[in-house]
Design a protein that fits this description.
heterodimer, A: alpha/beta, Rossmann fold, seven-stranded mixed sheet, 19% strand, globular, B: alpha+beta, Alpha-Beta Plaits, two-stranded antiparallel ribbon
Amino acid sequence: MKVVAKRPESLYYKKFHYCPGCTHGIIHRIIAECIDEMELREKTIGVCPVGCGVLAYEYFNCDMLEAAHGRAPAIATGIKRMLQDNFVFTYQGDGDLASIGMAEIVHASARGENITVIFINNTIYGMTGGQMAPTTLIGQVTTTSPYGRRPELTGYPIRMAELLATNEGSAYICRTSVHNPAHVLKTKKAIKKAIQTQMEKKGFSMVEILSTCPTNWGMNPIEALERVEREMIPYFPLGEFKVKE
Amino acid sequence: MAKGRVRFYSDRCKACELCIKFCPKGALGLDKKNINALGYHPATVVDPERCTGCGTCALMCPDLVIEVERE
Protein backbone atom coordinates (compact mmCIF):
# COMPACT_ATOMS: atom_id res chain seq x y z
CA MET A 1 0.00 0.00 0.00
CA LYS A 2 1.21 3.45 -0.95
CA VAL A 3 0.37 6.40 1.29
CA VAL A 4 -1.65 8.95 -0.71
CA ALA A 5 -2.42 11.50 1.99
CA LYS A 6 -1.07 12.00 5.51
CA ARG A 7 -0.19 14.73 7.97
CA PRO A 8 2.67 16.92 6.67
CA GLU A 9 5.77 17.12 8.87
CA SER A 10 5.54 20.91 9.01
CA LEU A 11 2.39 20.76 11.17
CA TYR A 12 2.24 19.69 14.81
CA TYR A 13 -0.34 17.15 15.97
CA LYS A 14 -2.26 19.86 17.92
CA LYS A 15 -5.97 20.18 17.06
CA PHE A 16 -6.95 23.33 15.15
CA HIS A 17 -9.17 25.77 17.08
CA TYR A 18 -11.00 26.80 13.88
CA CYS A 19 -14.76 26.32 13.51
CA PRO A 20 -16.08 23.20 11.70
CA GLY A 21 -15.65 23.53 7.94
CA CYS A 22 -13.39 26.60 8.12
CA THR A 23 -10.96 26.52 5.20
CA HIS A 24 -8.08 27.86 7.32
CA GLY A 25 -7.32 24.21 8.06
CA ILE A 26 -7.08 23.29 4.37
CA ILE A 27 -4.81 26.27 3.70
CA HIS A 28 -2.54 25.49 6.69
CA ARG A 29 -2.16 21.96 5.38
CA ILE A 30 -1.28 22.94 1.82
CA ILE A 31 1.26 25.53 3.00
CA ALA A 32 2.85 22.83 5.19
CA GLU A 33 2.85 20.35 2.30
CA CYS A 34 4.56 22.91 0.03
CA ILE A 35 7.23 23.57 2.70
CA ASP A 36 7.77 19.80 3.09
CA GLU A 37 7.95 19.10 -0.62
CA MET A 38 10.41 21.93 -1.24
CA GLU A 39 12.46 20.84 1.83
CA LEU A 40 12.44 24.29 3.39
CA ARG A 41 11.27 23.45 6.91
CA GLU A 42 14.62 24.16 8.58
CA LYS A 43 14.85 27.49 6.73
CA THR A 44 11.27 28.74 7.12
CA ILE A 45 10.23 31.70 9.27
CA GLY A 46 6.53 32.57 9.39
CA VAL A 47 4.80 35.68 10.69
CA CYS A 48 1.29 35.34 12.15
CA PRO A 49 -1.45 37.97 11.91
CA VAL A 50 -4.08 39.16 14.34
CA GLY A 51 -7.39 37.46 13.57
CA CYS A 52 -8.44 33.82 13.49
CA GLY A 53 -4.94 32.90 12.30
CA VAL A 54 -3.37 34.46 15.42
CA LEU A 55 -2.55 31.05 16.89
CA ALA A 56 -1.00 29.65 13.69
CA TYR A 57 2.39 29.57 15.47
CA GLU A 58 1.02 26.72 17.60
CA TYR A 59 0.37 24.62 14.49
CA PHE A 60 3.32 25.17 12.15
CA ASN A 61 6.41 23.15 13.01
CA CYS A 62 8.85 25.91 12.00
CA ASP A 63 10.01 29.24 13.44
CA MET A 64 7.03 31.57 13.82
CA LEU A 65 6.60 35.11 15.08
CA GLU A 66 3.50 37.07 16.08
CA ALA A 67 3.05 40.57 14.64
CA ALA A 68 0.92 43.49 15.81
CA HIS A 69 -2.34 43.95 13.91
CA GLY A 70 -1.57 44.37 10.20
CA ARG A 71 2.19 44.78 10.71
CA ALA A 72 3.25 41.33 9.55
CA PRO A 73 4.83 42.59 6.27
CA ALA A 74 6.92 45.12 8.24
CA ILE A 75 8.26 42.40 10.57
CA ALA A 76 8.81 40.03 7.65
CA THR A 77 10.79 42.80 5.90
CA GLY A 78 13.16 43.04 8.87
CA ILE A 79 13.60 39.27 9.12
CA LYS A 80 14.20 38.82 5.40
CA ARG A 81 16.73 41.66 5.17
CA MET A 82 18.78 40.09 7.98
CA LEU A 83 18.37 36.43 6.96
CA GLN A 84 18.37 36.50 3.19
CA ASP A 85 18.70 32.76 2.62
CA ASN A 86 15.65 31.88 4.70
CA PHE A 87 12.12 31.51 3.40
CA VAL A 88 9.93 34.17 5.06
CA PHE A 89 6.15 34.17 4.76
CA THR A 90 3.27 36.01 6.39
CA TYR A 91 -0.19 34.57 6.89
CA GLN A 92 -2.83 37.31 6.99
CA GLY A 93 -6.59 37.70 6.84
CA ASP A 94 -8.55 40.41 5.10
CA GLY A 95 -9.23 42.51 8.19
CA ASP A 96 -5.54 42.39 9.05
CA LEU A 97 -4.08 42.96 5.57
CA ALA A 98 -6.66 45.08 3.74
CA SER A 99 -7.80 47.30 6.61
CA ILE A 100 -5.33 48.20 9.37
CA GLY A 101 -2.34 46.73 7.51
CA MET A 102 -3.02 48.46 4.18
CA ALA A 103 -0.02 50.82 4.43
CA GLU A 104 2.40 48.03 5.36
CA ILE A 105 1.34 45.71 2.56
CA VAL A 106 1.29 48.38 -0.17
CA HIS A 107 4.74 49.67 0.78
CA ALA A 108 6.25 46.20 1.24
CA SER A 109 5.07 45.47 -2.29
CA ALA A 110 6.23 48.85 -3.65
CA ARG A 111 9.71 48.30 -2.18
CA GLY A 112 9.75 44.86 -3.78
CA GLU A 113 10.54 43.14 -0.47
CA ASN A 114 11.49 39.55 -1.15
CA ILE A 115 8.76 38.00 1.04
CA THR A 116 5.72 35.79 0.43
CA VAL A 117 2.28 36.82 1.68
CA ILE A 118 -0.56 34.32 2.04
CA PHE A 119 -3.72 36.43 2.11
CA ILE A 120 -6.93 34.76 3.31
CA ASN A 121 -9.95 36.64 1.98
CA ASN A 122 -13.29 35.62 3.55
CA THR A 123 -15.01 39.03 3.21
CA ILE A 124 -15.58 39.39 6.97
CA TYR A 125 -13.82 39.92 10.32
CA GLY A 126 -14.02 36.37 11.66
CA MET A 127 -12.43 36.38 15.13
CA THR A 128 -14.10 39.53 16.46
CA GLY A 129 -17.59 38.32 15.61
CA GLY A 130 -18.43 39.04 11.99
CA GLN A 131 -18.03 42.78 11.42
CA MET A 132 -17.80 44.40 7.99
CA ALA A 133 -14.32 44.24 6.41
CA PRO A 134 -12.96 46.28 3.46
CA THR A 135 -13.54 43.21 1.29
CA THR A 136 -17.19 42.67 2.36
CA LEU A 137 -19.36 42.35 -0.76
CA ILE A 138 -22.13 44.82 -1.63
CA GLY A 139 -25.35 43.75 0.09
CA GLN A 140 -23.62 41.31 2.45
CA VAL A 141 -25.15 41.28 5.94
CA THR A 142 -22.65 41.55 8.81
CA THR A 143 -23.04 42.67 12.42
CA THR A 144 -21.99 46.23 11.49
CA SER A 145 -23.99 46.31 8.24
CA PRO A 146 -27.26 44.68 9.38
CA TYR A 147 -29.17 45.85 6.26
CA GLY A 148 -26.41 44.73 3.90
CA ARG A 149 -23.33 46.73 2.81
CA ARG A 150 -24.47 49.94 1.07
CA PRO A 151 -21.93 51.56 -1.27
CA GLU A 152 -23.29 55.10 -0.75
CA LEU A 153 -22.39 54.83 2.93
CA THR A 154 -19.40 52.46 3.08
CA GLY A 155 -17.97 52.38 -0.43
CA TYR A 156 -16.92 49.34 -2.43
CA PRO A 157 -14.95 46.15 -1.67
CA ILE A 158 -11.19 46.35 -2.34
CA ARG A 159 -9.58 43.95 -4.80
CA MET A 160 -6.14 43.53 -3.21
CA ALA A 161 -4.54 41.32 -5.87
CA GLU A 162 -5.29 43.78 -8.67
CA LEU A 163 -4.18 46.69 -6.49
CA LEU A 164 -0.79 45.18 -5.63
CA ALA A 165 -0.23 43.95 -9.19
CA THR A 166 0.15 47.59 -10.29
CA ASN A 167 3.26 47.95 -8.12
CA GLU A 168 6.57 47.53 -9.95
CA GLY A 169 8.09 45.66 -6.98
CA SER A 170 5.56 42.83 -7.12
CA ALA A 171 6.91 39.71 -8.80
CA TYR A 172 4.09 37.21 -8.41
CA ILE A 173 0.49 38.13 -7.57
CA CYS A 174 -2.29 35.61 -7.91
CA ARG A 175 -5.79 34.86 -6.63
CA THR A 176 -7.06 31.33 -6.05
CA SER A 177 -9.86 29.63 -4.16
CA VAL A 178 -10.33 26.46 -2.10
CA HIS A 179 -14.00 25.77 -2.77
CA ASN A 180 -13.46 22.38 -4.43
CA PRO A 181 -10.68 19.76 -4.78
CA ALA A 182 -9.50 21.05 -8.19
CA HIS A 183 -9.05 24.56 -6.85
CA VAL A 184 -7.27 23.28 -3.73
CA LEU A 185 -4.69 21.70 -6.03
CA LYS A 186 -4.43 24.94 -8.05
CA THR A 187 -3.89 26.88 -4.82
CA LYS A 188 -1.09 24.51 -3.88
CA LYS A 189 0.59 25.11 -7.23
CA ALA A 190 0.24 28.87 -6.79
CA ILE A 191 1.81 28.75 -3.31
CA LYS A 192 4.70 26.71 -4.67
CA LYS A 193 5.22 29.26 -7.42
CA ALA A 194 5.19 32.08 -4.86
CA ILE A 195 7.80 30.27 -2.75
CA GLN A 196 9.88 29.68 -5.88
CA THR A 197 9.65 33.41 -6.71
CA GLN A 198 11.04 34.28 -3.30
CA MET A 199 13.82 31.69 -3.40
CA GLU A 200 14.91 33.04 -6.80
CA LYS A 201 15.02 36.55 -5.24
CA LYS A 202 12.65 38.04 -7.81
CA GLY A 203 10.69 40.22 -5.38
CA PHE A 204 7.37 40.45 -3.57
CA SER A 205 4.92 37.58 -3.97
CA MET A 206 1.34 37.23 -2.76
CA VAL A 207 -1.30 34.51 -3.08
CA GLU A 208 -4.83 35.70 -2.26
CA ILE A 209 -7.02 32.73 -1.32
CA LEU A 210 -10.82 33.03 -1.29
CA SER A 211 -11.87 31.37 1.93
CA THR A 212 -15.04 30.77 3.94
CA CYS A 213 -16.40 31.77 7.34
CA PRO A 214 -19.43 29.48 7.84
CA THR A 215 -20.03 30.68 11.42
CA ASN A 216 -20.25 34.41 10.68
CA TRP A 217 -21.91 33.98 7.28
CA GLY A 218 -24.62 31.94 9.05
CA MET A 219 -24.31 28.98 6.68
CA ASN A 220 -23.31 25.36 6.93
CA PRO A 221 -19.82 24.53 5.55
CA ILE A 222 -21.11 23.19 2.22
CA GLU A 223 -23.37 26.21 1.58
CA ALA A 224 -20.41 28.45 2.43
CA LEU A 225 -18.28 26.79 -0.27
CA GLU A 226 -21.14 27.26 -2.73
CA ARG A 227 -21.33 30.96 -1.81
CA VAL A 228 -17.64 31.36 -2.70
CA GLU A 229 -18.36 30.08 -6.18
CA ARG A 230 -21.67 31.92 -6.62
CA GLU A 231 -20.97 35.36 -5.11
CA MET A 232 -17.26 35.85 -4.45
CA ILE A 233 -15.63 34.60 -7.65
CA PRO A 234 -17.70 36.95 -9.92
CA TYR A 235 -16.41 39.96 -7.92
CA PHE A 236 -12.93 38.57 -7.14
CA PRO A 237 -11.89 36.87 -10.40
CA LEU A 238 -9.34 34.05 -10.09
CA GLY A 239 -6.03 34.03 -11.90
CA GLU A 240 -2.48 35.36 -12.02
CA PHE A 241 -2.29 39.15 -12.13
CA LYS A 242 1.44 39.59 -12.31
CA VAL A 243 4.25 37.19 -13.14
CA LYS A 244 7.69 38.77 -13.40
CA GLU A 245 10.05 36.82 -15.64
CA MET B 1 -11.99 -5.69 -3.46
CA ALA B 2 -11.38 -2.14 -2.32
CA LYS B 3 -8.36 -0.45 -3.83
CA GLY B 4 -7.93 2.15 -1.11
CA ARG B 5 -7.90 2.28 2.65
CA VAL B 6 -8.84 5.37 4.67
CA ARG B 7 -8.04 5.86 8.31
CA PHE B 8 -9.91 8.43 10.41
CA TYR B 9 -8.43 10.11 13.49
CA SER B 10 -11.97 10.54 14.84
CA ASP B 11 -10.98 12.52 17.93
CA ARG B 12 -10.10 15.49 15.67
CA CYS B 13 -13.24 15.42 13.49
CA LYS B 14 -15.68 18.35 13.69
CA ALA B 15 -18.31 16.78 11.40
CA CYS B 16 -18.19 19.55 8.78
CA GLU B 17 -19.10 16.89 6.17
CA LEU B 18 -16.80 18.28 3.45
CA CYS B 19 -15.22 14.81 2.95
CA ILE B 20 -18.68 13.26 2.61
CA LYS B 21 -19.78 15.90 0.08
CA PHE B 22 -16.68 15.57 -2.12
CA CYS B 23 -16.16 11.76 -2.02
CA PRO B 24 -16.70 10.78 -5.67
CA LYS B 25 -17.86 7.27 -4.72
CA GLY B 26 -20.17 8.16 -1.82
CA ALA B 27 -18.25 5.87 0.52
CA LEU B 28 -18.29 8.16 3.58
CA GLY B 29 -20.91 9.20 6.13
CA LEU B 30 -21.35 10.37 9.72
CA ASP B 31 -21.06 7.80 12.50
CA LYS B 32 -24.39 8.45 14.22
CA LYS B 33 -23.69 5.84 16.94
CA ASN B 34 -20.63 7.59 18.37
CA ILE B 35 -19.85 11.03 19.77
CA ASN B 36 -16.21 12.10 19.92
CA ALA B 37 -14.45 14.18 22.59
CA LEU B 38 -15.28 17.40 20.72
CA GLY B 39 -19.00 16.54 20.86
CA TYR B 40 -19.59 15.68 17.20
CA HIS B 41 -20.66 12.57 15.33
CA PRO B 42 -17.35 11.90 13.53
CA ALA B 43 -17.13 11.12 9.81
CA THR B 44 -16.35 7.52 8.95
CA VAL B 45 -16.35 5.00 6.08
CA VAL B 46 -19.82 3.55 5.60
CA ASP B 47 -18.98 1.51 2.50
CA PRO B 48 -15.27 0.55 2.51
CA GLU B 49 -15.63 -1.58 -0.64
CA ARG B 50 -16.28 1.50 -2.77
CA CYS B 51 -13.07 3.32 -1.78
CA THR B 52 -10.60 3.76 -4.65
CA GLY B 53 -7.99 5.59 -2.56
CA CYS B 54 -8.19 8.79 -4.61
CA GLY B 55 -7.46 10.99 -1.57
CA THR B 56 -10.10 13.64 -2.30
CA CYS B 57 -11.52 13.37 1.24
CA ALA B 58 -8.12 14.09 2.78
CA LEU B 59 -7.61 16.96 0.33
CA MET B 60 -10.78 18.72 1.48
CA CYS B 61 -10.54 17.88 5.21
CA PRO B 62 -9.76 21.06 7.19
CA ASP B 63 -8.74 19.21 10.35
CA LEU B 64 -6.25 16.58 9.13
CA VAL B 65 -8.52 13.77 10.24
CA ILE B 66 -7.93 11.46 7.28
CA GLU B 67 -5.01 9.33 6.10
CA VAL B 68 -5.36 7.53 2.78
CA GLU B 69 -3.48 4.52 1.39
CA ARG B 70 -3.77 3.06 -2.09
CA GLU B 71 -2.58 -0.21 -3.62
